[in-house]
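Throughout our pipeline, every protein is held as a single compact record rather than as scattered files. Nothing more is needed to write down the fold, since each code stands for a local backbone conformation. The record that follows is passed on verbatim for readers who wish to inspect the format.
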Amino acid sequence: MPFVLCLRRWLLSWLLPPPPEQRPPIRQELHAWAAFEQCDLLAELDLLQLGESLRTAALERGGYDNESFDVMVTIADLLVAEHGWSFQQSDGWLERMGLWDD
């Protein structure tokens, strides 16, 4: 859940900023935005790592079971909805992960 922790930290930095005399006006906001973007990238990497571990397990078992198949499709949907991937990118990723081989 690193994404949730990063999102919480980012929100708190906006909701509870230090007094104006203690922070430069622009730099603090840029830092908060950069931290939020970094959290988004880490969340995307977490999804891709989960997909890779499911692919490895599927190779060991000789294919995806129903639950793993559903999780892989859900990961692809999240990559499109939350991380700006196109449908073609996510479908290509599923193909490279061997999902359509079963």
Q: What stands out?
A: The mean pLDDT is 83.
